[in-house]
Write a structure and sequence with these properties.
Layout (H helix, E strand, L loop, with lengths): L5 H14 L7 H17 L2 H17 L3 H18 L2 H17 L3 H18 L2 H17 L3 H17 L3 H17 L3 H18 L2 H17 L3 H18 L2 H17 L3 H17 L3 H17 L3 H94 L2 H31 L8 E4 H18 L3 E6 L6 E4 L1 H17 L5 E11 L4 E9 L33 H11 L5 E5 L3 E13 L17 E5 L3 H13 L3 E5 L2 H10 L4 E5 L7 H10 L9 E5 L15 E4 L4 H9 L2
Parallel strand pairs: 2-4, 8-9, 8-10, 10-11, 11-12
Antiparallel strand pairs: 1-3, 3-7, 4-5, 5-7, 6-7
Helix pairs in contact: 1-2, 1-3, 2-3, 3-4, 4-5, 5-6, 5-7, 6-7, 6-16, 7-8, 7-9, 8-9, 9-10, 9-11, 10-11, 11-12, 11-13, 12-13, 13-14, 13-15, 14-15, 15-16, 16-17, 16-21, 17-20, 18-19, 19-20, 22-23
Length: about 725
């Protein structure tokens, strides 16, 4: 057991600090780093030795001694492997990867990057993951693999965001902008680079700002805004000089030279390209040297200065040959390793993604089942008593005294409003799950809109405002549409408009935009003179359970689902809901959808009372109030009815005599409606082929469940005209 002399250890760190100073001669930094290594060896401290050799490797890289930098870097990797220091090992591999990338050996650099990335992921080090992913993006760009480069840059951004590191996040925006620029997506490229500049400025990252300005200059150049581009390049050069960023200087001078060459400013191009050669030579940037020499050759050849041109083309050919030989050898040496590492990375990622997908799927299915069960139960428990309320109210209205009419109308309105809220919640859930489909039929558009106006007219009058309906005379009389869903859309928009309007009025307007042989494009709008919507809230309007803060009062209540449902239903019609609003002046909600005109009249079954007289119906209903109300209604229509209180009783009665129709409640004690219907359909009895209609308050029950056993289903509270239509069809 030994311990390091703290004073001597401190001296090692002082030597490394001195090594990182800016020297006119980079070899001075190497000398200090070597002294730190020797002292660490003398102290026999492996941890200090690894840190000292890392510093020495960096100094070799600064002085252009790439081979020595790699050798020492690999020694550091071996030291950390012996120490069992995973963090140090990952960092040292990332360091060696950086050396390979700096020296344009992207193949071997990629191997080390993929290796250390897996280690940083196991360590949960998002800071390092962000850096590695950015370097991976650079490597993929070199290989021309823009797709993987974009993925790597985006993953770098995600990792940086997880730890709130603005500098790291914006470092990935710069090259990502360059990829979109090369793809011709100027707006996307400019948006990213400007975001980077804002964030760099806010974070005080001037080194990063220099690279962001370089990216902005390239955008200006692409847009042919050359004065702005030159200004951005020069500012980038100034910042690179202040930060001692030689590679950045080489890149800026080269691109500036290219821009001047493209605009025919050869003197300026020569000056910039010579600057690029200077910094590229100093930092051994072969690619920039090669490109700059070739462009200088082109300029002097066009000027007729062939001897000078010849010198540059010879330099270009020499560097190109060196680059090709070097890269070819690197590819041969590292291809198998790269393939192995990529395969391992992809397999590991696929396993992780598979596990994540399965876990998310299981959680989603569990959450969905809980939600479905809850909604099924609640819809049944609420709708069942509501069925009795609406039907009894309807009966009472027929014989009510004059002084009772208003009370019954209020009761009817309140129960309908409660039903609308329940429908909103359940319909939203079905829309959100993608289970709701449009049920198209020939419908009178004028009648539908008049009915909507009639429904909400009394509400508008109570507030002392007007409710107008304006229809384009060029519209067809009938269209193929889902009457229920379009009513839901317009009803929600109108009720919202009335709710937030205290003076003036609300206008429903329907206009023909264009027509073809098949469909008419129709613009629907609802405008009001109400309180309006704040601009910063408009984007949130169509989110579920969303209302402006100043509207969350008893005066302006609601479920907050109406507009979310409107948005989703309009999307089923392949449309989009838009909003124009100004606080204090009102709002306008509008959408454009394509509908097929039809000359057919509404396919509504005429309710001929004689059609039902003396028909027999077996009613299965466990709720006695609902049963009493339903039996009274059926008797009123001239039907002979029998009542069963549970599934077993239904089966028994079905065996005793034939019925014209069976109305089967789904949720019953002892035996539910599904099992009862199954028994009737599969056993020998007089009603094996009798039409059976399911009665249910559970709107979450899938309609596919009814298709084999039932001829149809009626949702509670049951609408009288739908029940009548069902009975008339048997």
């Amino acid at each position: 057991m030994y311990s390091t002399d703290l004073q001597q250890a401190k001296k090692v760190f002082e030597l490394l600090t001195n090594a990182n100073r800016d020297f006119d001669d980079p070899c001075e930094g190497v000398k200090y780093a070597k002294k730190a290594v020797l002292l660490s060896i003398k102290l026999d401290d492996a941890g200090l030795l690894a840190k000292s050799k890392t510093g020495l490797s960096r100094q070799f890289m600064k002085s252009g001694e790439t081979s020595k930098a790699i050798i020492v870097g690999r020694e550091v990797i071996g030291t950390y492997q012996i120490l069992g220091d995973d963090k140090g090992l990952a960092i040292s591999k990332y360091h060696v990867a950086g050396i390979y990338l700096e020296s344009d050996n992207y193949h071997l650099g990629l191997i080390y990057l993929l290796d250390c990335l897996e280690m940083f992921k196991r360590l949960g080090d998002f800071h390092s993951q962000a850096k590695v992913q950015k370097s991976l993006g650079t490597a993929y760009e070199f290989f021309g693999d823009d797709r993987n480069a974009v993925v790597a840059y985006e993953r770098s951004i995600d990792a940086a965001r997880k730890i709130g590191d603005v500098v790291l996040e914006t470092d990935a925006y710069n090259p990502l902008s360059g990829i979109y620029l090369n793809r011709g997506k100027l707006d996307k490229a400019e948006e990213l680079i400007e975001r980077s500049m804002r964030m760099k400025h806010s974070a005080g990252d001037m080194r990063g700002m220099a690279f962001a300005l370089y990216g902005k200059a390239k955008v200006y150049t692409k847009k042919e805004l050359y004065p702005q581009a030159k200004e951005a390049y020069l500012e980038s050069i100034r910042l690179h000089r202040e930060n001692g960023e030689l590679k950045g200087l080489g890149m800026c001078y080269h691109k500036l030279g290219v821009m001047h060459y493209d605009t025919g400013e050869f003197d300026e191009a020569i000056e910039a390209l010579r600057g690029a050669l200077n910094f590229a030579s100093f930092n051994n940037l072969i690619a920039i040297k090669s490109k700059s020499n070739f462009l200088l050759y082109e300029i002097y050849k066009q000027r007729g200065d062939l001897p000078t041109a010849l010198g540059f083309i010879e330099a270009y050919m020499k560097e190109k040959e060196t680059l090709i030989d070097s890269q070819t050898q690197k590819v041969i040496n590292s291809y198998e390793s790269i393939a192995t590492m990529e395969r391992m990375q992809k397999e590991a990622e696929m396993q992780r993604e598979k596990a994540e997908i399965i876990e998310k799927k299981n959680k989603a299915e569990q959450a969905s089942k809980v939600k479905q069960d809850f909604l099924s139960t609640m819809s049944h428990e609420i709708r069942t008593p509501l069925n009795a309320v609406t039907t009894i109210t309807s009966f009472l209205q027929e014989t009510a005294r004059e002084d009772q009419v208003n009370l019954l109308e209020s009761l009817q309105f309140s129960s309908n409003n409660l039903l609308r809220i329940i429908n909103d919640i359940l319909d939203f859930n079905k829309l959100d799950a993608g289970k709701l489909r449009l049920d198209l039929s020939s419908t009178s558009l004028g009648s539908l809109l008049e009915n909507i106006r009639g429904t909400y007219l009394s509400l508008a009058k109570e507030k002392g405002i007007e409710l107008y309906l304006e229809m384009d005379k060029k519209l067809s009389s009938h269209y193929l549409l889902d009457e229920t869903r379009l009513t839901q859309v317009m009803g929600n928009l109108v009720s919202n408009a009335i709710k937030f309007t205290d003076e003036g009025g609300v206008t429903m307007r329907v206009e023909l935009v264009s027509n073809s042989e098949i469909k008419d494009k129709i613009l629907f709008s609802v405008a009001d003179t109400g309180s309006g919507v704040p601009e910063d809230f408009i984007n949130q309007l169509f989110e579920s359970f969303s209302q402006p803060q100043f509207h969350k009062t008893k005066k302006h209540g609601g479920s907050g689902l109406g507009l979310a449902i409107v948005k989703k239903i309009v999307e089923l019609y392949d449309g989009e809901v838009l909003v124009e609003s100004k606080v204090g002046e009102g709002s306008k909600f509008f959408f454009e959808i394509a509908l097929t005109p039809t000359n057919e009249q509404d396919k509504k079954i005429e309710l001929v009372r004689q059609a039902l007289i003396n028909k027999t119906v077996l009613l299965a209903e466990d709720n006695m109030i609902n049963a009493m109300v339903s039996l009274k209604l059926l008797g009123k229509w001239g039907l002979n009815s029998k009542h069963a209180t549970n599934g077993e009783e239904v089966v028994q009665l079905a065996e005793s005599q034939a019925y014209d129709c069976i109305l089967m409640d789904i949720h019953m004690p002892q035996m539910d409606g599904f099992e009862a219907a199954q028994r009737i359909r599969t056993t020998s009895n007089p009603n094996q082929n009798t039409p059976i209609f399911a009665l249910t308050a559970d709107v979450m029950a899938g309609q596919e469940s009814f298709s084999k056993l039932f001829n149809g289903f009626l949702l509670k509270p049951i609408e009288q005209d739908k029940l009548y239509a069902a009975l008339s069809s048997v």
